[in-house]
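User: Quick sanity check before I run a bigger batch. Here is a single chain. Can you write out its predicted 3D structure?
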Amino acid sequence: MTFIVTWKQWKGFVGEKREPLVVQRQRSIAYRVGARRGEIRPSMSSTEVSPAGVRRRLEVAAESRTYPILFGDGILDERSSYEPFIAGDKVLIVTNEVVAPLYLDRVEKVLRSLGKKVVVTVLPDGEEYKSMDSLKDIFDDCMENRLDRKSTLVALGGGVIGDITGFAAACFVRGVPFIQVPTTLLAVVDSAVGGKTAVNHPRGKNMIGAFYQPQAVVVDPEVLSTLNDRQLAAGLAEVVKYGLIRDPSFFEWCEENIDALVARNPEALQYAMERSCINKAEVVAADEKESGVRATLNLGHTFGHAIEAGLGYGSWLHGEAVAAGMVMACEMSVRLGWLDPEVTRRTERVLSRAALPVRPPPQMTLELFMTYMSIDKKVESGVLKLILLRGIGQSVVTSDYTQDILYDTIMHFHSMYKRNPEVYESALGATWDTTGTLQEAELEGE
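Assistant: Done. Predicted structure follows.
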C-alpha cells in the first residue's frame, strides 16, 4: 500500500506541482514505518524544503478530507489564507488571554474584510483549561450568536486552543468547518495537523474527543517570534520525535542543528517545521483514525500523559512530559533487548541541549504512573500497548512485554534519584521564570 504527499509552491493557492514523495507502508507483527524512506533533504542547502520566507503548500490527504497546510511569512494577515475555506457569513475565533493581545486584532480584521460577522471567545491560558467547562463556553457563544452549519470556527493559539476548538467544531450542530491557525511550534508540527481534537478529563488526558479534520492549517512562522523559550523548547520535543520514530536522517539533522533551533535560526526552524509536517501528513494519510501506524506518533506520550495528569495539568508542558516519556520509552526498549543503549544517550543529549527534561519527576511514583497509564487511550481489552523502538526510525506498537519490564523501567529512574538527587534534578530540564524565559539548562553526566 502506498500513499502520496505532494508539495506545491503557491501564490494565491495556485502554483507549480512538484514531484510526489512516495513512501511504502510496511505491515508486520508490529506496525512500522521505517528505515528506508524517500530522502527529503540531506542538508540545509537543498531546495526540497523551502528556505525561510518562501511560501509553500502541503496537502494532507486524510481519508475523510484533503486539506492544505499553508506556510508563509505574513500570511496571517492575508485574505487568501482564509477566504477559500469559509462558506458561511459567521466566524467564531477561539483564542486565549496570551495570544489575543498579540494576534486577535489582525485575524479579526482580515475576516471582517471578507464581509464576515466575527465573534470571539477568549479562554484562560493553560492545559488545565482544556476542559468541559471551557468547551461549554465555546458552545454558549455559538448559541448566543446563532451560528449555524455554515459557520466556521477559527482556532488561534497553541495546542490547547486547537484541540478544544476542533472538538467544539466536531460537536456543534454535529459538525461545522474549522481552521487551525497555530501560534506555537508544538501546534505547528503536531497538534494542528491530523484532526485529533479533545478535552481532558481529570483522570486522563485527551480522553474525550473526536477525529475531525480542519479545512486548512495556516502557518505564519513570524508568530514564533513572540513564543517564549519554554514553549519553543516544548515544541522541539515533538520535532525530535519524528526522527526517532520514522526519519533517521532527520534525527541526525536535529542532533547537528539543535543549537540553531534553540537560537531561533529562521532557516532551521522553517526546515524543522516543514519536515515534521511532511512526516505527520504521511502518517495521517496512511492511518487517519489510529488503527495502526498512526499510534507510532505517540512515542513517549503514554508515560508523558501520566506525568501531566499526575502532576496536575499545566505543571509540566506537554512537550516537556513527552521528552521525559521518550527517554523512558528508549530505556524500556533497551531492557527488552531491542535498542542499543547509545540511542538512549543520543536522545538524552539532543533533548537536554534544548533545555528539556530527560528524567521523569521524582514525585511520579510507580503507583501514580500505573494509575494513569491504566486508563490510557491505547489500553485495549485491559492490555496497554506502548510505542517503543527497535532502532532510530524503527518504531513499534506493541504489548509484547512483561509487566515486570514496565515496572523495572519506572523504578530504574527512582533508583537513579535515590543514588544522587542533585544530579537527577539537574536532568529535569531548565529553570524558567514566570514569563517562560530560560534561566538555567545544564545536564550533568550520570
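The mean pLDDT is 87.

User: Great, the batch can go ahead then.
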